[in-house]
Amino acid sequence: MKTVTLEKDCTIKLSSNIVDYIYPDYVFIPMFEEFKLKVKNREEVKKEQTLLSAENKTIISPVSGVVVGVKNCAVASGETVKCLVIENDFKEKMHSRTTIRKKLKQLSKNEFFQSLEKKQIFDYDFLKTKKFNKIIINGIEDEPYMATKLFTMSKYSSEILEILSLLAALFDVSENIIVLKNNDRDNIELFSNVLGTYPEINLNVVPDIYPIGKEIVLKNYINFSKEETLILSPLDLVKIYSILKKNKVITEKLITISGNAIINPFIVNAKIGSSVKKIIDEHVEYINNDDLVYVINGLMCGVETSIEDLVVTEDLEGIIINKKEMFVEQECINCGKCFDVCPVAIDPHLIFNKKKNVDLANKCINCGLCTYICPVYINFKRKIEDMIHEE
Ligand code: SF4
Ligand code: SF4
């Protein structure tokens, strides 16, 4: 499997600074098609009250306040979606009581599923039927200049270990691994120091190559079978912890804001549903705010976007704010570099020839290496995405 060591732009620095943005005036909650609206216009809502529901899934209000209408907003995928607008009353009136469960270790498998089902945030039905022999927590931050996963791992290290240990006991799994990159020195030190108290959990450190965070590539460095392995992100564990321990759904999300056009890169702990533009307007100091590009979720896999109506959702990992560079896409010179670098061996002729091969295009893992390597600035990744969407 092909991987590369990415050249990093030294002008983009990360800071260890976390700022809070948890009291927005308004929140914007995406109303995806499969969901039914459970509240009316002008209705008062409490924090964690159900706003929308679909089969086995609900979306709750991250604040208490009043429903004041609907607005088109952009989400991390780049789509525009109708969003329910809630005006925050800043009273934080809760829909249900916070109950602290003291000892998670005593939880039975039934109680575990009942707690998750009651909140209907996860579709973890597959856990009931599948048998796992390994649990992997993928703590790898693959995207250069992004630090959301790194900060999630460090901020919630004890919660992550407690839930991983619980899952290992509930599902009787003996091989439980936290995976980190070898350049994530802070987390390696942090977890190495506490793992002595969790003999059932091991740390596995992998090289700083790209895209090792993708399962298909990771498999070459850690031996696992996809069918028999439960792979979770640090955020999954944080969500489970919050429900099991506090009977609460998370309403905040860590996001990286960085890029070569800003002076003060930071991590923001943002209320879900907040306006990204407001966060940026209030906290970002620009070097020069002419000719900027905003890229959602990283330079390799992300998409360029406008932040005007972008809202914070659980899948928003970060915004890179870069100076616009004038790369003019030229005609393909058939150098074959994109094919050489592609981890799943997709041939560019698939796109440039008239006959499309959508099955092959569907194998794309959206790593962006082909675009990164192309000497004539062809955005091959986007062409594949467009081809899949056109189908
Ligand atoms: S074609 Fe897809 S998988 Fe291959 S390098 Fe490009 S983005 Fe990555
Ligand atoms: S790397 Fe660019 S120029 Fe070379 S074959 Fe691929 S698309 Fe064409």
Q: How would you portray this structure in words?
A:
- The chain is an alpha/beta fold and 391 residues long.
- 26% of the residues lie in helices and 23% in strands.
- The protein is built from 13 helices and 17 strands.
- The strands form 4 sheets. A 6-stranded mixed beta sheet has the order 1-14-13-17-15-16, with helices on one face.
- The longest helix is centred in the middle third of the chain and has 14 residues.
- The protein binds iron/sulfur cluster (2 copies).
Topology:
Layout: E1 18-21, E2 26-30, E3 36-37, E4 44-45, E5 50-54, E6 57-60, E7 65-74, E8 80-88, H1 109-119, H2 126-129, E9 134-138, H3 148-155, H4 157-170, E10 175-181, H5 185-194, E11 201-206, H6 215-218, E12 229-232, H7 234-246, E13 252-258, E14 266-271, H8 276-283, E15 292-296, E16 303-305, E17 318-323, H9 337-341, H10 349-352, H11 358-361, H12 369-373, H13 380-390
Parallel strand pairs: 1-14, 9-10, 9-12, 10-11, 13-17
Antiparallel strand pairs: 2-8, 3-5, 4-7, 5-6, 7-8, 13-14, 15-16, 15-17
Helix pairs in contact: 4-7
The chain binds iron/sulfur cluster (2 copies).
